[in-house]
TrEMBL record:
EC number: 3.1.26.5
Organismal lineage: Bacteria, Pseudomonadati, Bacteroidota, Bacteroidia, Bacteroidales
Protein function: RNaseP catalyzes the removal of the 5'-leader sequence from pre-tRNA to produce the mature 5'-terminus. It can also cleave other RNA substrates such as 4.5S RNA. The protein component plays an auxiliary but essential role in vivo by binding to the 5'-leader sequence and broadening the substrate specificity of the ribozyme.
Gene3D superfamilies membership: 3.30.230.10
Enzyme class of the recorded protein, top EC level: hydrolase
Alphabetical UniProt keywords: Endonuclease, Hydrolase, Nuclease, RNA-binding, tRNA processing
GO molecular function: ribonuclease P activity; tRNA binding
PROSITE patterns in the record: RIBONUCLEASE_P (PS00648)
Pfam family for this entry, one: Ribonuclease_P
Name of protein: Ribonuclease P protein component
Organism listed in the record: Hoylesella buccalis ATCC 35310
Top-rank taxon: Bacteria
SUPFAM superfamilies: Ribosomal protein S5 domain 2-like
UniProt-listed InterPro entries: Ribosomal_Su5_D2-typ_SF (IPR020568), Ribsml_uS5_D2-typ_fold_subgr (IPR014721), RNase_P (IPR000100), RNase_P_CS (IPR020539)
Amino acid sequence: MFPLRVVYLLTDQPDGDLQHVVPVKMMVSVSKRHFKRAVKRNRVKRQVREAYRQNKEIVVSSMADSPNRQLLLGFIWMSDELHDTDTVERSMQVLLKRVADKL
């Protein structure tokens, strides 16, 4: 969902260290091609991380039934413009629901 794109990978956990398993990990990528100034790139990354923090329960709850699996999420910023926080959060909700449905 514009301005964000999500890529994900569902992996198996190694058998050795199950007590330290984090069920969902995420990363954010904002290309220098979209924003030359680091200030703007960092602002977008903060917006995406905060939107994920507020809505991560959507995917974490769907991962609860498979304790030895891990979901790796990558959020990629696709727009050349800054967007307000509400737009980013709505986009994050839609993307997380889509990922949770495919699990």
